[in-house]
Amino acid sequence: MVITVTGAAGMLGSRLVERLRADGHDVRGVDIRPAPTVTLLGDVRDPAAMAAAATGAGALVHCAAALPSYPADEIRSIIVGGTTTVLGAAAGAGVPRVVHVSSTAVYGLPAVVPTPEEYPRRPVDTYSRAKAAAEEVAERHRADGTCLTILRPKTFLGPGRMGLFAMLFEWAEEGRNFPVLGRGDVRIQMFAVEDLVDAVVTVLGAGPDVANDTYNLAAAEFGTLREDFQAVLDAAGHGKRVVSVPARPALLALRALETLKLSPVYGRLLHKLRADSYVSVDKARRRLGFAPRRSNRDAILATYAWWRGRTPETGTGTGRTSREPWRQGALSAAKIFF
Q: I need a labelling partner for 161 at 20 to 30 A (CA). Which of 14, 83, 103, 299 fits?
């Protein structure tokens, strides 16, 4: 089968292309950046490029997206505009199976944990609003007859992941303690990118009645933020610890730095760090027969091991891709206290 994958140069897309090729599929990787996994250079907002990408495909997996670190207008344009163009091209080409990779960000700051798929979309910022709007586009195509899967993964980790996690890894490697807000006893669920690839492959092989649905995806085994961060510090081997900082003054300081654009920590993340954040994965287990194999700790330690052995790449530090560390900004000056 010919399978089109958007975002094929990204962390998820590149691994998915490699896996599908290994499984014997003819994969058409699409991205604006050249890479070994990219066969067609094109912007997901370009109708002509996406029409070419979709023509003749037996399935399309839409992985391309903007990150929360992007400017607000780009987030909306890439996530909503790109999804509209990609799914429109798939419909025009008669692609019979589409997988749309969304995010649990669509729930906003849910009051119910574990959060089920039936929980309403309540976006709270530019990124989550864009993800929610993109899902509405996908649901319209589903209503028009396309077999369309919406996958909502938690933050996924694995080799190639940098972003804000690079800050934890860097501080651990330098032999510093690492701060958490308050006691750090909130339970934050993550997801291994290898498990996400497995889930996409599972959906592509599922019957239409099962595939034509929406699924949360996340680690089944996870602990507290303190435990996961401490696992990285232990792996660094310097004997350092996760240390608590008073939540209220720290939050005030971080909000001020965010307003002044001196910190990469954004509002929704601040809320997530203060309360349990995990979703129900029962539906994926029950309907898809999918169960993740890796825990939070497995995912974060595998990412740290990759980070330690990587060849550092040059970059702007603006968070344009998951492979690039975000600028720590004023937070780098806080190192001296830890």
A: 83
Topology annotation, domain 165-188+221-278+294-337: UDP-galactose 4-epimerase; domain 1 (3.90.25)
Report residue 194 as tokens: 């290898």
Query: % helix / strand / coil in the chain, to the nearest 5?
Result: 45, 15, 40
- 212 class by beta-carbon count within 10 Å (0-12 exposed, 13-18 middle, 19+ buried): middle
Q: How many Cα neighbours within 13 Å face the side chain of 144?
A: 16
Average pLDDT over the chain, rounded to whole?
A: 90
What per-residue confidence (pLDDT) applies to 316? 47
Return residue ranges of the chain for CATH 3.90.25.10. Answer: 165-188+221-278+294-337
The secondary structure of residue 332, as a DSSP letter, is: G
CA distance 51 to 33: 18
pLDDT for residue 49: 98
Question: Taking the C-alpha atoms of 293, 295, 298 and 304 in order, what is their torsion angle to the nearest 10 degrees?
Answer: 120
Q: Measured over all CA atoms, what is the biggest interatomic distance in the chain, rounded to whole angstroms? A: 58
The per-residue DSSP string of 171-236 comes to HHHTT--EEEETT---BB--EEHHHHHHHHHHHHTS-HHHHSSEEEE--SS--BHHHHHHHHHHHH
Phi, psi at residue 159, to the nearest 5°? Answer: -50, 130
**CA-closest candidate to residue 294, choices 216, 192, 160, 222:** 192
The answer on pLDDT for 314 being more than 50 is: no
Lowest-pLDDT range of 146-155, 288-297, 319-328: 319-328
Amino acid at 75: I
Task: Give this prediction's pTM.
Answer: 0.91
Class of domain 2-157+189-217: alpha beta
CATH 3.40.50.720 domain locations along the chain: 2-157+189-217
Which DSSP category does 157 fall into? E
Q: How far is residue 90's CA from residue 80's CA, in Å, rounded to a whole number?
A: 15
Please, which residues have CB within 8 angstroms of residue 319's CB and are 6 or more apart in sequence?
67, 68, 69, 70, 163, 264, 326, 327
